[in-house]
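Work Package 3 (structural annotation) set out to generate three-dimensional models for the target panel prioritized at the project kickoff. During this period the team completed the workflow that converts sequence records into discrete structure tokens, so that structures can be stored uniformly alongside our sequence database. As a representative example, we reproduce one entry of 415 residues exactly as it appears in the project archive.
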Amino acid sequence: MSELRQPNIILCHECDLAHEVRALPSGLKAFCRRCGAHLYNARTDVFDQPLAWALGGLVLFFVANFFPFMTFKMEGREQVNNLVSGAIEFWSAGYWELAVLVFLASTLLPLCSLLLVIYVLLPLKFRKVPWMGPLALRALLALRPWAMMEVYLLGVLVAIVKLTDFADIVLGYGFYAFILLILTVTAANVTLRPDSIWLHVGIDVDNDGVQPDAQALAGCHGCGHVVPLADAERHGSTCPRCLAALHHRKPNSLSRAWALLIAAFIFYIPANVYPIMTVISFGKGTPDTIMSGVVHLIEFNQWPIAILVFFASVFVPILKILIIGYLLISVQRGSNWRPRQRTVAYRLTEFIGRWSMIDIFMISILVALVKLDAVATIEAGPGAVAFAAVVILTMLSAMAFDPRLIWDRAENAHG
């Protein structure tokens, strides 16, 4: 395996400004001088650290999934659950959408991410290029936002707080292994350097002849490789390094983002009107909406958890809808007002989007643990399906929006 030459030009993925790539001292990072986006890191220890963390995480994954996660004890009865119990209970209750979502976000996609890291880096460690390496690395980067173990852990903690007032909760080995798994996966993601790995798994290309003229360049959406603009605008063209389809800008970015955002707004109404879960005790059911759940936490003086749930489940979804809507309107009107601040706002929506899933994960824990027949049972409600749709649709809307359009419109308005 021969290492590819480092490209001399890189385009910012958020504002499209061309930068000359320079070697950095160990531990430093390069940021866009116009919008502040992170561009690349110093290229040191490309394989060893993320590979070691991923291999350790794979061991912890099986411990977390095959050992008891938590045990619920009440009125002399107990219920033991595993990591996938919530998804199974959702499926049994007919909420297959929630079952698939919880299983993917908490179990399958984290496993796929670990396996992809090992699949890509292990052959490279022995100077072999993995088969379909570019596709595997693109898949790994695409899965990152949807593997939500740390969000799931917060949902678990909220569920524990809700249950400790009237039952005993015993944490199992699977729970502690899950915490360690989150730490190892986080470490693998932090130490993984996709820009450096592309130099090893990508097809051998040379862009030394490309000149840093931002008006004549385009960056690949898959790997960031810089090509002449004419190549990106040619129908059916693909990236010479990772074989992804080339586009100067995300196709139909505004229309797709609008469609997803409007759908999210529509689902936001039933998500707050219908109950997200129902607590049944001795034959009597008490339905809970998102806001009533926050109120109950306040009544029990659990202010920190109440603030967390309110922020993640009420404030963040509407904030995302408002920010994305504002960005879409400002781009369509050709606004040149504070493009850097608008780019930061877009970056914020991408970061906070996934954290709204706390309520869904909390419900998955509660329905799996509290199954004591007539004594106490918790069932999911239709509001949970609508709320999950809001979270997914706002995330997809943010992904469909191309932040480089902010700078295109600002430059056109200024010019």
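The domain at 46-192 is CATH 1.20.140 (Butyryl-CoA Dehydrogenase, subunit A; domain 3).
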